[in-house]
Amino acid sequence: MEFNSVELVGYLASALLMISFSMKDIKKLRFINSGGCFCFIIYGFLLKTSWPIIITNGYILGTNLWHLFQSRLEKPN
């Protein structure tokens, strides 16, 4: 079984997303999920620009980064 570099990026993205959903800590989940989304965006471009993959994961990445940024601004009680 041979894999090309495009497929490897897709598998890495999938693995990161699956790992992220096993996290109990929401910050870890968002951080790892962001890495998976970033890999999926790259994968979308490598597939000769697959806009559904790029747009969906771009939105999720932006949402994750927004929430991570907001959580850093919150002061501990």
Q: Key features?
A:
77 residues, mainly alpha, 3 helices, 0% strand
Break the fold down into its secondary structure elements and pairings.
Blueprint: H1 5-20, H2 26-46, H3 51-73
Helix pairs in contact: 1-2, 2-3
How would you explain this protein's 3D organization?
78% of the residues lie in helices and 0% in strands. By secondary structure, it is mainly α. The protein has one domain.
Tally of strands: 0
Tally of distinct domains: 1
Instruction: Round the mean pLDDT to the nearest integer and report it.
Output: 94
Question: What global shape is seen?
Answer: flat
Structural class estimated from helices and strands: mainly alpha
Roughly what percent helix?
over 70%
Oligomer: single chain
Unreliable sequence segments: none
Radius of gyration: 14 Å
The profile of the biggest β sheet is: none
